[in-house]
Amino acid sequence: MKKVLVLEDESSIRSFIVINLRRAGYEVVEAETGEEALEKLEHHRDTRVALLDVMLPGIDGFEVCRRIRAGNSRIGIIMLTARAQEMDKVTGLMTGADDYVTKPFSPAELTARVDALMRRSGGSESSEGEIQQDPFLLNTRNRTLEKNGERIKLTQVEYAIIKMFMENPGKALSREEILDMVWGRDYFGELKIVDVNIRRLRLKIEDNPTNPTYITTVWGYGYKWGF
Ligand code: CA
C-alpha cells in the first residue's frame, strides 16, 4: 500500500493536500500536530512518505523530521515551507528531509514530488549485489553502505545518489543529470536540492567534509565521484 502521512495544522491546506493525494491513489494518514504525527507513524509503520509542515503550534516540522530520522532512514520526507523561507529549506534538508515544496503549490507539483520519493522508497530495482570501491562497499540487495566496514545510515535519496556515483566513477555529472537520475525525469524541483543533499551526504561519508575527496565539485557544472 502506498501510504503517506500529512502533517499540517491548517485544516484547509491539509484537506487540499489529502484530497489530491487520495485522488492520485495514495492512502493518507493525517496529523494536526508534530506530536500526533509521531504517534501515528508508530501505528502506521508502513508509511513510505511524510509531508511535514514547518510552522506548527507544538514542536516544529524540523524537530519532527529529526525525530523520525533518528529511528527511520527509509521513509521519504518532504518539508512544506512558506515562500521566502529560503533558509528553512536548507535547514530542513540538513535535518534529514529529502525534499521540500514551497507554498502555495499545485496539486500536480505535490503529487509529482510524492511520486518521485515513492519510487525511491520502493525497494531495490536490481539485485546485482555489491559494488566495492575502497573504502566503500555498497550492497544493492539490502541498500546499505559501509565505509571501512562500518555501516553508514543513509536516506533513500542519499543511497540513490551514492549508487549513481559508484556506477559512474570518475565521470563528471551535471546537476541536471543527477536530478534526472535520482529524482526522475518527470520531477520538476530545483537544482539546489542536488547541492543540499550532496552537502549532507558529504557530512556522512567524507573524511573531511570541508575538503571532500570522494564527492568532488566540478565547478560550474556538477559533481564527480573520485578525484
Ligand atoms: Ca502551519
Structural overview:
The chain has 227 residues and is of the alpha/beta class. It has eight helices and twelve strands. α2 runs parallel beside α3 (61-71) and α6 packs across α7 (175-183). The radius of gyration is 17 Å and the shape is globular.
Count of domains: 2
Query: How far from one another are the termini?
Result: 42 Å
Tally of helical segments: 8
Major β-sheet strand ordering: 2-1-3-4-5
Basic shape: globular
SSE order: EHEHEHEHEHEEEEHEHHEE
Rg value: 17 Å
Strand runs, count: 12
Bound molecules: calcium ion
The CATH architecture name of the largest domain reads 3-Layer(aba) Sandwich
Please write out the topology.
Layout: E1 3-7, H1 11-23, E2 27-31, H2 34-43, E3 47-53, H3 61-71, E4 76-82, H4 86-94, E5 99-103, H5 107-120, E6 130-133, E7 136-139, E8 144-147, E9 150-152, H6 156-167, E10 172-174, H7 175-183, H8 192-205, E11 215-218, E12 222-225
Parallel strand pairs: 1-2, 1-3, 3-4, 4-5
Antiparallel strand pairs: 6-7, 7-8, 8-9, 10-12, 11-12
The structure holds calcium ion.
